[in-house]
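Supplementary Methods. Inverse-folding protocol.

Structures were first reduced to a discrete structure-token string of length 498. This string, shown here, constituted the complete conditioning input.
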């Protein structure tokens, strides 16, 4: 497979190598920020949407599950799309889909049209982050990639953090449609600015697409994300056909997909990335960290609202300081990565995450709001120390011909691990809560509900702690990645194992 990328700039003109590169990436970052912000805006507003358009929770959950499903299906295809189409064309298409989807969702009279709008938004969002990451690795010199990815990390972490808080404020005072109307002007500005200023920074090839691989990828990743998302949102137990059937079908399709990719000369998703040891280890660490982050983002608001009686807005505000700190720390950790590498950032970050999860497992009804906020902020500090550095280090090890594939693989597995982690932790919480309630004896009903919830949360956080402990041990295997020499195009079928 022959993929030719633009060479990274060798000038010393700032983090991104040149002013031209800076402009390209800043335009794309703004588009990614809007898309990711929109992803978290809707969760707090679901109850208002259900009341307004008259739908049940089982239908409303599709506004979130369907969004995740489209992204999970689309991301594996981004490696092909990035090689087939120009940077400018693909970015404008992605933002165009997002803009049209936002318009449709804003004016939707009923559920069907609202879901269609969300699907189009997700199609745009799924393209944007892998495209941005690939552009960074194509144009930014190796020694500055940490700082560049740290800059990107500001929006990647800040947008989800302010999403629930912003949504809570808007929904409390305005219609939920304002969530979509408010995004439209920014998305339109990005499209106009990108049309005028965005240049192509990677050359395209004409790779063949294997239709069977595309079908297996869609069924495989789509089935797994849908099944685990259904379980995670409480719409079916593990034995429920709604969960078990798509997961089993997805696993079978994914097995066939993997086998086929290893046989093809031009695979849809090049799995030779896993022959690089640092990439393998880093991917496992990032998947576990995603599970830990989702555990806090999901369980803490539940505890604050259902056990301590706080409002949705107050529950959302707990997450805000941590998100702001992640945004502040992201460029700092990027520069530290450029200077020292990813290993010790990951070791210290994972130790901090593990300690915080252990503290969460000791939470009680008397734990104060401020204490929970501080613990969550420390958790996000730990995550900020390793997420972008570990990802950058993983991709640094790959030859340029595999950047698009490596980005697509990491993005896909993060999406899948988020869905799997959420489902797993909800299940552990539910089982432990039910077990506590069954053996609690004569405890008043109101108190029993809160105590059962705490018991379930403790078990879920202990599981998250155990997973992070494994990731912490794996982090000692990391070292500074060095791209292979003379292997830019990866002609042939084998890559050197490390």
């Amino acid at each position: 497979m022959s993929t030719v990328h633009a060479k990274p700039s060798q000038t010393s003109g700032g983090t991104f190598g040149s002013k031209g590169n800076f402009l390209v990436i800043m335009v794309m970052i703004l588009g990614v920020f809007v898309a990711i912000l929109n992803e978290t805006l809707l969760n707090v507003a679901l109850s208002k949407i259900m009341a307004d358009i008259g739908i049940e929770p089982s239908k409303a959950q599709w506004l979130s599950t369907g969004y995740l499903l489209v992204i999970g299906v689309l991301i594996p295809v981004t490696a092909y799309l990035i090689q087939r189409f120009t940077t400018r064309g693909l970015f404008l298409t992605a933002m165009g889909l997002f803009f049209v989807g936002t318009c449709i969702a804003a004016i939707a009279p009923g559920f069907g049209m609202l879901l269609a709008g969300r699907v189009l938004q997700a199609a745009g969002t799924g393209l944007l982050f892998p495209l941005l990451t690939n552009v960074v690795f194509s144009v930014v010199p190796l020694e500055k990639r940490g700082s560049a990815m740290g800059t990107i990390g500001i929006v990647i972490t800040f947008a989800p953090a302010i999403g629930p808080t912003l949504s809570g404020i808007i929904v409390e005072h305005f219609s939920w449609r304002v969530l979509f109307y408010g995004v439209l002007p920014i998305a339109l500005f990005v499209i106009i600015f990108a049309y005028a200023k965005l240049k192509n920074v990677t050359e395209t090839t004409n790779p063949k697409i294997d239709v069977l691989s595309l079908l297996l990828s869609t069924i495989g990743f789509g089935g797994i994300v849908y099944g685990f998302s259904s379980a995670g949102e409480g719409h079916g137990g593990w034995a429920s056909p709604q969960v078990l059937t798509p997961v089993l079908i997805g696993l079978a399709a994914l097995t066939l997909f993997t086998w086929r990719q290893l046989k093809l000369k031009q695979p849809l998703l090049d799995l030779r990335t896993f022959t690089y040891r640092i990439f393998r280890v880093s991917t496992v660490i990032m998947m576990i960290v995603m599970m830990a982050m989702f555990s806090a983002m999901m369980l803490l608001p539940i505890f604050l609202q259902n056990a301590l009686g706080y409002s949705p807005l107050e529950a959302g505000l707990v997450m805000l300081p941590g998100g702001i700190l992640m945004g502040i720390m992201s460029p700092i950790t990027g520069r530290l990565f450029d200077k020292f590498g990813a290993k010790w950032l990951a070791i210290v970050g994972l130790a901090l995450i593990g300690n915080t999860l252990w503290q969460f497992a000791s939470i009680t009804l008397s734990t104060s709001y401020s204490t929970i906020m501080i613990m969550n902020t420390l958790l996000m500090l730990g995550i900020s120390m390793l997420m972008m550095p570990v990802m950058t280090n993983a991709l640094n090890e790959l030859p340029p011909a595999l950047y698009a594939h490596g980005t697509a693989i990491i993005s896909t597995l993060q999406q899948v691990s988020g869905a799997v982690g959420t489902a797993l932790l909800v299940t552990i919480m539910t089982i432990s809560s039910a077990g506590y309630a069954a053996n609690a004896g004569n405890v008043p009903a109101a108190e029993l509900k809160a105590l059962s919830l705490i018991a379930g949360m403790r078990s879920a956080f202990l599981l998250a702690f155990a997973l992070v402990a494994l990731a912490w041990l794996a982090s000692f295997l990391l070292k500074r990645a060095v791209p292979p020499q003379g292997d830019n195009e990866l002609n042939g079928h084998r890559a050197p194992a490390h």
